[in-house]
Amino acid sequence: MPLNVYNTLTRRKEPFEPIHPGKVGIYVCGPTVYGHSHLGHAKSYVGFDAIIRWLEFSGYAVNYVQNITDVGHLTDDADEGEDKVTKEARRRGLHPMAIAETYTRSYLDDMDAMNIRRPDVMPRATGHIPEQIACVQTLLDKGHAYEVNGAVYFDVSSFSRYGRLSRRIVEDMDAGARVEVNPDKKHPSDFALWKRAEEGHIMRWSSPWSVGYPGWHVECSVMSQKYLGETFDIHGGGIENQFPHHECEIAQGECATGKPFCRYWLHNNMCTINGQKMGKSLGNFVLLKELFYTGHDLLEKTFEPVVVKHFVLTSNYGAPLDFSNDALKAAESGSYKLRDAARELSRAALSGSPKPRAEKIRTALEDIEKRFTDAMNEDFNTAAALAVLFDLAKQSGAWISEGAGQEDLLAADTLMQRLTGDALGLKWPSPLGGDAESSNQDDLIRLLADLRDQARKNKDFALSDQIRDRLASMGVQLRDTPDGTKW
RNA sequence: GGCGGCGUACCCAAGUGGACUAAGGGGACGGAUUGCAAAUCCGUUAUACAUGGGUUCGAAUCCCAUCGCCGCCUCCA
User: What is the pLDDT along chain A (487 residues), one digit of tens a residue?
Assistant: First the structure.
């Protein structure tokens, strides 16, 4: 079955066909680095991680570009004109570039913790000012933009397809519903390509029009086309940016080159917390570092990054997702169950007995892989794919207890690793941290487990429980099974 | 006010016209196993898909209305 993706441009699922066979160029809107990453970032980038990984798993050579926005954002609708990076810089008495650097690293730390594949290119807006100026100049030259007092605006009336992505009709929109209309603009829908810097604005560059800074939308058009070509395969981003940001990207990109901008638009949906929109003023704003490490008032406990990733994958990237303590706890139990089954399988595969392969297991594994593949090929249905993994976990447990041969167990183990580790990027840390395989941790635990078993045989349950409890406090869970003690 | 999306069991959630007698995870309950745990295994847990109409031989899936929730509505989120 071929890969089908839901394309916002056409509002339907369609077969995915890359421009160049075997290769995929994908651009995903990255974060604005003025603060630590929050739940919304986890939802968004876990979703796109699954997409990137699945494209690679399917054999495509993927070129993944994700920008870092380090200039040019309003603080909020009510707050006139100051950019968020600059505001944070002033608050902390640092240069804006130090703020951008700090939070770029913070973002990458959080994403790495969830084992999210890093982009191949992470271009920064401030590192592409000349390219943005060139793009603005091209748009002026082609009659798609006009200059007023050192600012340059895109002329929406010059691009008839404006509004096609978000299905909006320019005339029908209630201009000024949220923000005062700028009197310099010919039409309220026109948007800024370049702005003149006011007195005291730190982030400023020379341009043919003024000393100023670029409009937000232009960076994405320029950087995506620079690294992926004038027309590329996939553009991803949050659904809240569908309008106006993505609409503007298309307008700029297509007017500058005269070519289609991007073929498939994939939009990630939003998340809520306890059913409510997350907002700083609502007091329900949860940072990933709080979720992972330090805790938050709305949550009973912290959750491992892999658990958070698992939770996000239980719903579709295009559907909204509600974070709550209960939902995260459920995902945690599920994630650990899958983790333990996978570990059990790896261990069993190492010590399995030599036997000819069983047809039953061979066909079962083929069936698992097919169902998983079908699920992911249907617009990256990670929830259905996870269900298949739970089935593999259940079946492999039965094979182990039936005494399946080593070859079969190795085949099952390999499939489990490929689907959990490669396709979904679920990576559970080893119990004591570090790399369990390369140390003698396992041997030490074995030693303690053996000593405990001797104590149990002697009915010295005080000692055996003490060993179990102390290992548990270090993160090692001992379990007595009919086949001996495991962890 | 306009546009778009969503509403599936106690919770999360997949499924978008017939293979649905509605995945999967969590939780709960019963049983097996067990020194106790934990884990595992077996079984039970939606005649039902927000509500009300309609289309169809057939609808969770399509149409209309209502209710609820979410996002966007213009410029530098």
Answer: 689 999 988 888 889 999 999 999 999 999 988 889 999 999 999 999 999 999 999 999 999 999 999 875 444 333 345 677 777 888 888 888 888 999 999 999 999 999 999 999 999 999 999 999 999 999 999 999 999 989 999 998 899 888 888 877 776 665 444 455 677 888 888 888 998 888 777 888 999 999 998 988 999 999 999 999 999 999 999 988 888 899 999 999 999 999 999 999 999 988 888 888 887 777 788 999 999 999 888 888 899 999 999 999 998 898 888 888 888 988 999 999 999 899 888 888 887 788 888 888 999 999 999 999 999 999 999 999 999 999 999 999 888 888 888 999 999 999 999 999 999 999 998 765 555 455 677 778 888 888 888 888 888 888 888 888 888 877 777 877 766 777 7
Rounded to 5 degrees, what are φ and ψ at A376?
Answer: -70, -30
- Burial annotation A181-218 (CB, 10 A radius, 16+ → b, else e): eeeebeebbbbbbbbbeeeebebbbebebbebbbbbbb
| Strand B nucleotides where any atom sits below 7 Å of a protein CB | 1-6, 11-16, 23-27, 33-42, 69-77
Protein A100 CA to nucleic acid B13 C1', in Å? 37
Spatial distance from the CA of A384 to the C1' of B23 (Å): 7
Assess if CATH 1.20.120.640 describes domain A288-423: yes
SS3 content of chain A, % helix, strand, coil (to 5): 50, 15, 35
Pairing of strands A145-148, A151-154: antiparallel
- Structural domain boundaries in chain A: 4-268, 288-423, 439-486
- Right CATH for A4-268 from 3.40.50.620, 3.30.70.3340, 3.20.10.10, 3.30.300.30: 3.40.50.620
